[in-house]
User: What shape does this take?
Amino acid sequence: MLATVGILSVAFLYRAAGCYIDMTGIPGLESPSPAVSTDGGMTAVHFLDVGQGDSTLICGTEKTVLIDGGERDQGDVVLADLKEFGVKTIDCIIATHPHSDHIGGLVDVLEYAAEYDDLEIKQVIIPDIPENDIPTTAVYANFLNGVEANGLSVTFAEYQMTLDLGSSMMTIYPPVPGADYSSLNDYSVCANLVCGDVSFFFTGDMEHPEEYDLLEGGFLSGVEATVLKAGHHGSSTSSSEELLAQLKPEYVVISCGAGNKYGHPNTEALERFYQYTDEIYRTDLDGIITCTTDGTNVAWTTEGEE
Ligand SMILES: [Zn+2]
Assistant: This one.
């Protein structure tokens, strides 16, 4: 009940702001629980090692999703990993937010797919950012050109947008409509992947303001995370106590570069994770991290251990 009230009030605010999505027509708003697949097959989630950046490849039985692609100089790494994992079609790329450590490598992926027949990209989802905050950087322009070179237009993330991967179901959680943030990190598109009893929550670089807005709006009602991809590379400005209390992670994955200048992951964030679990995987220590699940059990492999 509380969640419904929260959503309605956000919907009202949004309409009052006179923006572009009619929230009343979006299916599932009355029941914000994540969608669930009934396929029952295996899903593999590969947290790629792109140094100080973020890139996650998700392979269901029917569909494949790539969330972010690391920095501009990591495009070759991501392309090599796509080949290694036998990916010929990316059904959906999610560019969580337009910072270069997330979309930089996607430029190479998009340009490669536009030029060669052995990789096809079918959809690219991005956050709908207020006009004043849309970046004018070269990397963002190159990213958009790359999308166009594939004959595609970007798809703006909307509430309760779902993607059926066969063995798992992904639900998209965009930033709260009408919100005005000082950092692009808070416009991150989040996603919840549910495979039977096992779920993943992907955060981009979401920090406390977006976390609080999603929680207070009731958008994360019913969402838990067996596996949490820590927001913003394990920064203290992400993964608030409130978010962790909602998601209750059993495993945490942090994507960051060895010896990075930002001090990621931050000790305070690690302490907050330890309240829930000491099963913390880090790309700076473990390289590529793969979590495979049949919907009941989870199995982990890290680079060099396979
Ligand atoms: Zn980042």
Remarks:
- The first helix runs from residue 2 to 16.
